[in-house]
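Example 4.3 (complexes with small molecules)
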Amino acid sequence: MIKTMCSTLLVAILLLTTSHSYANAVSADNIARGKQLWQQKFNGKAPYQQRSCETCHGNNLSKAGKHIRTKKLIKPMALSANSARYTEAKKVQKWFYRNCKWTMGKTCSKQQQADILAYLKSL
Ligand code: HEC
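Answer. The structure with heme C bound is encoded below.
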């Protein structure tokens, strides 16, 4: 009886842990899609006709970027270079909203955001 209970419990724990890690799994596909989106160029209004996430964040994400309009420095986006990144959900949401609109002319889907985050966190 106790033995059966124990093995049932064990199976339950195993199922829980596997489904949990599956839900959080980041695949190479996510990272590749995020990178592609990050580098993709979109058309915008003058004087910034060609826009991408790199327009302000630069193409070396371990280094600071520079805001195209205000010229202010933007700290590195690579998680390995800036551990304060992506720690505040509200901040992440706010900037995804703002920057996707400015860069792509539309908001990013949840999947696109997850892919971009997977890419930035992999760096
Ligand atoms: C016009 C300039 C500009 C462009 C283009 C831009 N960003 Fe940003 N981004 C900023 C600024 C400014 C901040 C806030 C300062 C900071 O976090 O260092 C920021 C912050 C962020 C953050 C918040 C990071 C955190 O620590 O929570 C995310 C996510 C982000 N940007 C994603 C993007 C994505 C995705 C694109 C392309 C679709 C993009 N950005 C394009 C200027 C820009």
